[in-house]
């Protein structure tokens, strides 16, 4: 037997998983047999967990096959509390999917927090409960085949009729093939899967987006050589340019269940050659099983994954977590869609935008557009920030008292107050910290101190709520800047104290991602607008000071501006003060208010906006700044740690729209920092 019964830590084995394997062998061996206790989550353990589920559901050992079929689905329960085998299995499944959790039979907040992250990462309804859709995503690669999705792929030409059917059924993105083998010797009407002339224009004209796939003989190991990789890269770029596909991610297919040795011997050299021969601004994506996608991406040969999760029998899917850089997830096939076409249903993470335009002529590039910064708002009537700093100083004294009396109010024995500075910032950010979408990347608000403030210091609480409540006023500084204190405090907290997400994702990157979504919505409502000029008009603007471009085109700001003047002020200030807090040798009672007093008494625009350099942005030239912004927004590591913030915040914005916003931000920061 090749089974291992000791922890294989050198191969990625984990003690928590080994303990789980031992528990399965102890309690469920009549269902699973004896499984390895090596600490590795693979095909055999995945099958065993499904058999454990079937045991919990009441099937007999003979009926518990490890196949997640209709019978298993019909007995799934939704759990959100209590102590049971169901809870234990859910916590185990989350652990096996890579979430830091100790398996337990008792429902707790750690399970809820992990569920929020898992559900958001897999783009399924975020409920904080283990519902049937979540069970299926936890234990099978394809998940719930009936869940909603906005993307699809097909080998069939997207005709006007097909496009309207897709839109009517809620699809917004379609994957299509750039080419096919022997295409030069095939009449266009006889193409099996390749894009036809004018098809991309037709897709876009119906309000759909698309993503390009390259696949040529990818079903056997011998197809994957370095020589083929080099040739495929050149052919993919040539096809993309011929069809008018702007620079974007092209997904190269591996429709083969390669084992780890085969990935090393063939798949990695193939993608290395693809990378070495990829030009024209196009980026490399991979279509493959979970394991292949992950290994190729970790090797640095692909930035995005299109996961073939529909292939549930692939060894590269069983027992493997979804790749951290997944953009598309193919999970269910509809043969004979509308009686005419075959269609694969595809989940979309939003990490990488699909394409929403076609380059009509490579010989006539768009003329350069001169950057015009959005106008500055009038801050003369706003409350000065010094008034809020005075309130913060009072809050620091109150929190110091709280640290001495908290045991009278906190009903949880494990509760301990934070330091004065951290506790005060947490309270100032309560409008964000009470929302799980923000809290999972930072921290949850302290409910006991919130109650303490309401009971013992209602006057101070009411004064502060003017600036940190759900309906709050902004404040101004001497340089003409503006701050939203709650937003500033949330970002400051994350820069100073949180390691749950890269700092910029809780600040400017999150704001820029929402700006990408805004740009998409404005262009959808006003299709005659220029994409780049609209990005310039939106990024860093203020709702009270409309851009000349919007005025000239009779565009209203009513769709919103979520990457705005105030956000850039908040984020810069949080970067600067957050670094100071991290580097402070010690804290006194009024560390925060003292730092804010010093900072805002001498604030200038140049001092504020050059603070972004402390967060890794390169101000040495415009191109360097643009590239450093894109690296932060699109980098693979950022997506691993960012809990899908780009995916959730950027909405259905296209690749081109996202790039336009990055360019606009680079222009904005350079203009402001002079």
TrEMBL record:
SUPFAM superfamilies (alphabetical): (Trans)glycosidases (SSF51445), PGBD-like (SSF47090)
CDD domains reported for this sequence: GH25_BacA-like
InterPro entries documented for this protein: GH (IPR017853), Peptidoglycan-bd-like (IPR002477), PGBD-like_sf (IPR036365), PGBDSf (IPR036366), Rv2525c-like_Glyco_Hydro-like (IPR015020)
Source domain of life: Bacteria
Domain Rv2525c-like glycoside hydrolase-like: 165-328
Gene3D superfamilies for the chain: Glycosidases, PGBD-like superfamily/PGBD
Residue stretches making up the Peptidoglycan binding-like domain: 93-137
Protein name (database record): Peptidoglycan-binding protein
Organism: Gardnerella vaginalis
């Amino acid at each position: 037997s090749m089974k291992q019964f000791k922890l294989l830590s050198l191969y990625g084995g984990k003690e928590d998983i080994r303990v789980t394997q031992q528990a399965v062998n102890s309690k469920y061996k009549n269902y699973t047999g004896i499984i390895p206790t090596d600490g590795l989550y693979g095909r055999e353990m995945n099958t065993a967990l499904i058999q454990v589920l079937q045991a919990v559901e009441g099937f007999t050992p003979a009926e518990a096959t490890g196949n997640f079929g209709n019978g298993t689905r019909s007995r799934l329960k939704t759990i959100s509390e209590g102590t049971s085998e169901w809870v234990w299995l859910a916590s185990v499944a989350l652990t096996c999917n890579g979430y830091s959790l100790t398996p337990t039979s008792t429902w707790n907040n750690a399970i809820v927090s992990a569920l929020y992250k898992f559900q958001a990462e897999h783009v399924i309804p975020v409920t904080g409960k283990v519902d049937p859709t979540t069970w299926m995503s936890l234990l099978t690669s394809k998940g719930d085949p009936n869940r909603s999705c906005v993307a699809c792929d097909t080998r069939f030409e997207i005709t006007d009729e097909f496009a309207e059917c897709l839109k009517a059924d809620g699809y917004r993105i379609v994957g299509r093939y750039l080419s096919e083998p022997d295409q030069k010797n095939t009449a266009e009407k006889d193409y099996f899967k390749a894009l036809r002339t004018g098809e991309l224009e037709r897709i876009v004209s119906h309000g759909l987006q698309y993503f390009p796939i390259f696949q040529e003989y990818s079903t056997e190991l011998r197809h994957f050589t370095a020589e083929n990789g080099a040739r495929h890269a050149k052919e993919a770029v040539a096809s993309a340019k011929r069809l008018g596909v702007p620079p974007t991610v092209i997904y190269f297919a591996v429709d083969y269940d390669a084992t780890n040795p085969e990935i090393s011997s063939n798949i990695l050299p193939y993608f290395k050659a693809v990378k070495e021969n990829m030009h024209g601004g196009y980026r490399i994506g991979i279509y493959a099983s979970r394991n292949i996608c992950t290994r190729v991406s970790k090797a640095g040969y692909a930035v995005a994954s299109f996961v073939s999760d529909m292939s549930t029998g692939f060894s590269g899917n069983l027992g493997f977590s979804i790749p951290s850089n997944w953009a598309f997830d193919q999970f269910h096939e509809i043969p004979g869609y509308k009686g005419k076409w075959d269609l694969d249903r595809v989940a979309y993470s939003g990490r990488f935008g699909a394409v929403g335009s076609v380059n009509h002529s490579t010989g006539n590039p768009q003329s350069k557009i001169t950057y015009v910064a959005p106008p500055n708002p009038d801050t003369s009537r706003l409350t000065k920030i010094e008034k809020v700093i005075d309130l913060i100083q009072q809050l620091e004294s109150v929190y110091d008292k709280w640290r001495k009396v908290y045991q009278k109010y906190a009903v949880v024995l494990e509760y301990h107050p934070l330091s004065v500075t951290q506790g005060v910032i947490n309270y100032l950010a309560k409008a964000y910290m009470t929302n799980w979408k923000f809290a999972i990347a930072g921290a949850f608000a302290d409910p006991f101190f919130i109650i303490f403030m309401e009971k013992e210091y209602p006057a101070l609480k009411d004064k502060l709520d003017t600036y940190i409540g759900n309906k709050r006023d902004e404040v101004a500084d001497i340089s003409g800047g503006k701050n939203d204190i709650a937003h500033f405090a949330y970002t400051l907290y994350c820069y100073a104290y949180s390691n749950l997400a890269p700092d910029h994702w809780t600040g400017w990157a999150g704001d820029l991602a929402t700006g990408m979504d805004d740009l998409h919505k404005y262009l959808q409502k006003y299709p005659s607008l220029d994409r780049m000029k609209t990005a310039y008009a939106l990024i860093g603007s203020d709702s009270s000071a409309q851009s000349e471009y919007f005025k000239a085109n009779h565009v209203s700001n009513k769709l919103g501006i979520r990457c705005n003047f105030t956000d850039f002020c908040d984020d810069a200030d949080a970067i600067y003060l957050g670094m100071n807090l991290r580097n402070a040798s010690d804290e006194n009672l009024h560390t925060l208010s003292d730092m804010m007093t010093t900072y805002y008494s001498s604030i200038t625009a140049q001092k504020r906006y050059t603070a972004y350099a402390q967060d890794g942005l390169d101000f040495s030239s415009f191109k360097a700044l643009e590239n450093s912004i894109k690296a932060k927004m699109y980098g693979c590591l950022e997506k691993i740690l960012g809990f899908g913030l780009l995916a959730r915040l950027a909405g259905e914005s296209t690749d081109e729209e996202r790039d336009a916003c990055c360019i606009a931000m680079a222009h904005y920061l350079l203009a402001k920092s002079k």
